[in-house]
Write a structure and sequence with these properties.
It is a single chain. The protein is built from 1 helix and 5 strands. By secondary structure, the protein is an alpha+beta fold. It folds into 2 domains: 32 residues; 55 residues. It has a 5-stranded antiparallel β-sheet with strand order 1-2-3-4-5, with no helix packed on it. A hairpin with a 5-residue loop joins strand 2 and strand 3. The longest helix has 24 residues.
Amino acid sequence: MTRPNMNNRKNLSVGVLSITAVILFIAQFIPIQPALALESIKDRDYTLVTANSNQGGDSIYVTENRTGQMAVFSWDPGRRALALRGTGALTDAFK
């Protein structure tokens, strides 16, 4: 003979798991906004801009506002680190 208290615990557990399953099923259909690398941050000394790279992935452009020097970094998955892709004067980019 089963105890009534044990039977209530099983029913509660099954109910909680069923509700959780329904919530997870519905959650998979909710659209998620993808992360876009199209942001910029401007400070007095530096400007940071993210953009999509031609080789795939994302790049970050760091510009020092006082000297006009710019550096481009992108993620290197092989090294699992940011890799410097190039440096130079900002005016050279628009020639």
